[in-house]
Structures are given as C-alpha cells and as structure tokens.
Specification:
Two copies of one chain form a homodimer. By secondary structure, the first copy, chain A, is of the alpha/beta class. Chain A has two domains: about 240 residues, Rossmann fold, CATH 3.40.50.1100; about 160 residues, Rossmann fold. Chain A has 19 helices and 15 strands. The model of chain A has no long low-confidence stretch (mean pLDDT about 95).
Chain lengths: ~450, ~450
C-alpha cells in the first residue's frame, strides 16, 4: 500500500510565519491614502487595525514568531495532512505524482482560520470588543466567527447576498459559533444604502461587502475590521500551509515541479506558494500557477494598476491586478473568487513573471470536482475546484508527454455547504457565463488616476 | 502546549478486525427464520447477503483479516485522530481528562464507511451489480454511495422521509457519489405502498425503510441488501475505531475509566467499545455507557425479546432490546437514532450488565453540541451530541467529586448536513417530545410469539 497521507505531529506545527516580502524579486508598491494619494502610514490604518497587524503588514523580516495563544488554537486541526492523490492518478492514467494539501480539515472547512485566529488574537490583545468583516462564499465569515469565539469577541459578518441566498447553512454555521450575519448590500451602512438605491436587486460583491464592513469598523470605537485575504499580513499567516507542505514533500521524497492554487483575493494561493518562492527564483523550470474563474479574470485580463480594495473607495489604493473597483462579477458558485482585485504580493509576483495565471470556466471546474469526489472521496468547494481542474489538466499533459512531474495543489476547502451548486450542476442548470466584457470595460474606465 | 490530537500513521491502520463474539460474557441468541421461527442458516441469508459477509456474521474467530482492497480505501482517511478535549475540559473546569475519537473526518463525515467499504467489496467480489439500503439521517446512505463508487456498484437508497425533508443536501452528497435516493415510505415497494395506504403522512422510520430495501434486494437477482448497523459483521468492521483508540490512549498515557457512545442500531458504539470488552470483564470499575434519545429509548425502556428488524416482518427475528417493530419514533433531529431495535451484540452486553445505558432529551443534547462546537470547534451531528452530552455530565460529576477520571467518547459524525436542526434550536423551535408511552405500549403488544 502506497501512503495516501503524509501526517505531521503537533511538534511539526510551524512556530514562525514566513514573510515572502523578504525574498520577492519585485516588492509590492506602497499603499496610498484614498484621499491624499500619498503613501499611508501606520496611523492611517489604526482606525480599523490593531498596531501589531499593521506592523506585520509592513514588515520585511523573513520570519515572525507565532504567539503561543495562536498555536494553541491552530493545533486543534494543524498540521493538516498532505495527500498523495493515488486514486485520481489511477483514474487519469497519468505518470505524474499529484499531491494535495488538505486545508478542508479545519472546523470551518477551509484555510481561512489560519489568519482569522491571529487576527482575533491581536485585536483582543489591543482591547477591541468586536470585529466587522465581509464574506463571499462564507468560508471567511465562518472562520472569523469561529476565531472570535475563542477570544471572546463579537463578530459581525456582511455576507455577499448571492452567497447568502445560495448557502443558508453557512449562516447557520456562523450562528453556531456566535457570529451575526446579514446579507450585503444591506441598509445598515451608508455604503450599502447607496448601492441599494441605485441597484435594488444587486447580488452583492466582495467589494461592496468590504465597504460595509470597513464603514462599520471606522464608525465604531469598539470595533475593528478584519480582512480574510488580499493584505500582506493575511498571506504571512497563511504561510503555515506552504511551510508544512515543504516538510511533507520531503518526507514523501518528491520535489514540486508545479504548484497550483485558486485565487480570489490570493490568500490560500499566496500562503501555499510563499515558502517555495526562494526555490522558484533559483529554479526556472518550476512553475507556479494561480487559477481564477473566467467570470472574474483579474490576473489574466485585468490591469496592473492602483485601485481601491472596495466599491465605495474607502480602502487605501493598492497596486494590484484589478478589473476595477466597481466591477460586479456574474453570480458563479465560487463566491470566494468573485473579487475585482488581487493581493499586492500575488500581483507583484505575476507582474515580474514569478508566477503564471490561468482562467477556467465554471462547468469544467465542476466536472473536475466530481471526478475528484469520486476518486479521492472529498467533495471540494467550488473555489477549490479551480485548482483541481488545473492540476488535472497538467496531469493529462504529463500523460501525453510521458513526463513524471510532481504536481502539488492546495485543497483550500470542502464543499459541504455548497451542495446546492452540485445539485444545479447535476440538473444541467449551471452555465458558463459569457465573458463580462462590457462590465469590465466600464469598470476599468473608472480606475483612479494616481 | 499539551497535545490536542494523537495521530497514527498509515502503518498503524489495523490489519485485522476484532470480533467481540469471541470474548463476550453472554453470546447473542441465534437469529430465527421469520416464517418457521427455526434458527436461520447461511442459505436463508444468501438471497440478500454475499457468503463472505454471512461467514463473518456467524464467525467466533477473534481476529479476521481485512482485505488489502478494503485497507486501500480506508487509508484515504484512517487512522482517524484521537483528540484530547482540552478546551472543553477548561470550559467545564473539570479534573477529568476527556478524549474523543474523531470519526467525522471520513469523506461522508461519519464512522459509517468503515463497514460500507468492506460490504461493497465483498458484494462486488460475489458478482453483485447493485446494492439497496435504507438510511435515516443520511450518514449511512452517503457512506454506501461513496463505497459503491470505488467498487463500481449501483447504489439505491431508501431515505426516511422526515430526514429526506430535513436534510436535502445529504441527498446531493449521495448524488455526487453516484447514488440514487428516494424518500421512504415510497411507492416503489409493496412494503412502502402498504404503509402509505394506511398512513399517507407517515414520516417514515428506519424499520420501514429497511423493509423497502430488503424487498428491493430480495426481488432482484443483481441486487443485494446492505445494512449500516445492528448486525454482527457491521460491529466487526467498526472495531477499527476501538482498536485505533487503544493504541492512541497508550500513546497519551491514559487508561479509560468511562467509554461513551451514542446508540441507534449500535454500530459506532459497538465498534468503539468492542476491543475494550476483555479489559472491562477484568475490571469491574470501568464503565461503558450507551446513550440513546429519550424519544426512542430502546435499551432503557424496551423489552429484551425476539423481534423483527423491520416493520414489514421480512428480516429474521433477532433477540434484542426492542420497542416493537412497528414503533415509529417522534421526528427528532437525531434521525440515525430512530430505530426500534438494537444490535444483538449490544443487547447481550446490556442484558448481562457489561454495559449500561442512559436516555437523554433532545434539548440537553443540542445544548451540549453547541458548547462542544464553541470549545473544540467541531459542529457535531445530532446523533453524536448524545455521546457528548453524556460525557459532559460525567465530567461535571468529576468536578463535584474531584475525581480525575479518563472519559473517552466516540465523535461518530459532524453536523454539516444538520444545520437546519441547529437553526431550529437557536430559534427555540426544538422541543423535547413527551415520552411516547402509548405508541410504545401498542407496538410492544405486537412483539412476535417465539
């Protein structure tokens, strides 16, 4: 019996986060103040973030200690397994070795608590009572509700309306951990009311929900904002994924030729690949692939430009790949990938050619997800199916060429709260949305002048 | 940091099942033919079971080899972790050590695939093309759909109607693995039509669904029947739970004072405690507690008598604790515990005092489930919440007495497909059903004369 899983004991849980900013070929540009368009300082961010997270956001130290209180919660499910996808390999008849890092084993079902836990911890330490956030598919809102419970913080979640409707049980999960959830756009904020006035039937977007959560946090002294992706400190916290994967691949005796992750804001992809970047910069042949939906093709069709992180232009301007801050993507089921921008770290790596990107259609991703469920057993989240689909394509290429490559992807989450999407797929009710050319052109035209 | 999880590598996966029939103080009585009331022979069972499973059903060998083809699938998720519930202990302020064996990590989310996989394997080996089964909460139907996919068998699931309505996404999960699911009672079988004629609004029960599945299997040559609980070979297959737990407790350096599992038909409880039975028979002080719902109090209020396993009286008569084969329990959310009978092995152990039993109310179990979710992170299935509630009660007793007992329970499944039940709980819409005295008296009066 070949090993299906490479497990690590609790003693192998990383004690330090790896900060890829120390090693990137091209560093991200500084954030700019949305009003003055001058670089933001720590004080500009302190209205919504605690100082320790702001420090991590700008740090270029290669290693940053993980507090014991954070390790103590992470160890409820970490280290996570690395699986060799033997049954998928057999089904494909590929000579490739396929591995997947299984982040679906966390209680909320994804990689998101890796950063939710430290964010809740640092906010609690700073005396904050309440966190406000947005969520797309609900993975992040679940993770933050879960984390807030450990540090006795209130959690307020603005959930993108289309996902709120598609996934009622994500809301129930947040309630179980004590979170409050409302659909966004909502009538609770100026940002939400403005959108509703113009588009009463808006399905919402991550950009809108971020505006609502930022406004909530900025207008309440007891409340900070927490972001589940995009920012440097989020990718820092997610580096535990890649650090464990490196140890596990060493045990398996394989070196990665291709690393693959799906990208919405870039958090699971960034954390998964970050520790491999020094290797990549020494080894031209190694490939790192970011996979996005063709309905929201930020890295493959967007501009590399300064833009707002949210629709209401409340966040700092970030230099990133973007489709424009008022782009509302079609209502694909991979709600966590419906974001107009991309993490500045991931964007910089795409900009200088460290990584490559592909955009895939909804139907081919669901087809890949079902093949994966019927071979490896795990039913993946629609977001994750993008990484799976890309891995399968690369493994099929290996079958054609006879190359025995090692393909490693991040299984960012399970699909237990996305079964409505699978129902729609089996009932032939899912479509590939046409490329939203007009909407993208319109939103790209509104990119801010910097 | 104290260890939260005790992990075992793939090399620690049991290679043999443990058969508790070899060591029980009192053996179960033989099954009787439903017509002749004489002991059944292998030929009587061969219409619906393959010969290798019939052999395991009657074997008294202490150890039975697990086929490599079965190990190869089980190793997708086994060995499962044993967790020390440190955060729950802290919340309770108890000196007790609480451990839980985490069977929720399997792809279908429970212990059920431990027996679904070997049952599918032996049926495939015997040339069968299709399996028919019943499911309550959907855990067993999911597990059999999952297992059938690996051995290229069709899977037909009769799902208890109340659960079919409460848990639509369980059905989606079975579809994803290729299973077919219909609500029971259905119009597809004589047994189903007879119930519908008398009770058009029947919520269904496991007893009725078993009748439908047995009829389906008995009337089609290409089809066998698979049962997810009750039978000896099921408890045999589930012994991997207890065998791994023994190794893990040794690593943790603790010996169990109290073992706890929830009981519907007895499969997770039986497999969890079986390998500990020889210890128990040498150590009077060790306690083994079966926890059932007060709405279906088989072990605590039933008769220890011969009865049918199903409503339509198609199965052999089994000597077991029973509330009568036509008892239809109130529609509690722990659908997997809504069974009128109990595994003959578990019944015999209750009969001779090897184990004890308690019955708990729905609301106290949900309260325990929420406390567990907010401390250990995992949202448990409503069935599992019965074991959790009992473990918490025992840990609280330890707090009162100051005793540092070691309490180990089986976390039989997660509640990701039961969030509607949690919604109802938070909305104060769940009730403790009154003890169904009249229904039980009526069904007990119809126990067969043997």
């Amino acid at each position: 019996m070949s090993a299906h899983r490479i497990l690590l004991g609790e003693d192998a849980l990383p004690r330090k986060w790896y900060n890829v900013l120390a090693d990137m070929k091209t560093k991200p540009e500084p954030y700019l103040h949305p009003g003055t368009k001058k670089p933001v300082g720590p004080d500009d961010l302190s209205a919504i973030f605690p100082m320790e997270l702001i420090g991590q956001e700008v740090s270029t130290d290669r290693w940053i200690d993980i507090p014991q209180e954070v390790l103590d919660v992470l160890s409820l499910w970490r280290p996570t397994p690395l699986h060799r996808a033997l049954k998928l390999e057999q089904a494909l008849g590929t000579p490739a070795h396929i591995y997947y890092k299984n982040e679906s084993v966390s209680p909320p079902g994804s990689h998101k608590p890796n950063t939710a836990v430290p964010q809740a911890y640092y906010n609690k330490k700073a005396g904050i009572k309440r966190l406000a956030t947005e969520t797309g598919a609900g993975q992040w809102g679940s993770a933050l509700s879960f984390a807030c419970k450990y540090f006795d913080l209130e959690c307020m979640v603005y959930m993108v309306k289309v996902s709120y409707q598609q996934k009622p049980y994500r809301r129930s999960m947040m309630h179980t951990w004590g979170g409050t959830v409302i659909p966004s756009p909502s009538d609770k904020t100026n940002a939400g009311r403005a959108i509703l006035a113009q588009f009463p039937d808006s399905p919402g977007s991550l950009g809108i929900a971020i505006s609502e959560a930022v406004e909530d946090a900025a207008t309440r002294k007891d409340t900070n904002y927490a972001l589940g992706s995009v920012l440097n400190h989020v990718i820092l916290h997610q580096s535990v994924i890649g650090l464990e994967t490196q140890k596990q691949l060493k045990i398996a005796g394989d070196e990665p030729d291709i690393l693959i992750g799906c990208t919405g804001g870039g958090s699971n992809f960034g954390g998964f690949v970050a520790p491999f970047i020094p290797d990549k910069l020494e080894n031209e042949k190694m490939r790192i692939i970011a996979v996005e939906p063709s309905s929201c093709p930020t890295l493959t069709r967007g501009a590399f430009a300064y833009d707002f992180g949210d629709t209401a232009k409340m966040t700092p301007l970030m230099k990133m790949y973007t489709l424009g801050h008022d782009f509302v993507p079609p209502g694909i089921h991979a709600g966590g990938l419906r974001y107009h921008g991309m993490a500045p770290i991931v964007s910089a790596m795409k900009g200088d050619g460290t990584i490559e990107a592909v955009a895939l259609d909804q139907l081919e991703c669901f087809e890949a997800a079902v093949l994966f469920a019927r071979t490896e057993g795990i039913i993946p989240a629609p977001e994750t199916s993008h990484a799976i689909c890309s891995a399968i394509k690369e493994a099929r290429k290996c079958k054609e060429t006879g190359e025995k490559k090692t393909i490693v992807f991040n299984l960012s989450g399970h699909g237990h709260f996305d079964m409505g999407a699978y129902d729609a797929y089996f009932a032939n009710k899912l479509v590939n949305f046409p490329y939203p050319q007009e909407a993208i052109e319109k939103s790209m035209a509104s990119l801010p002048q910097v």
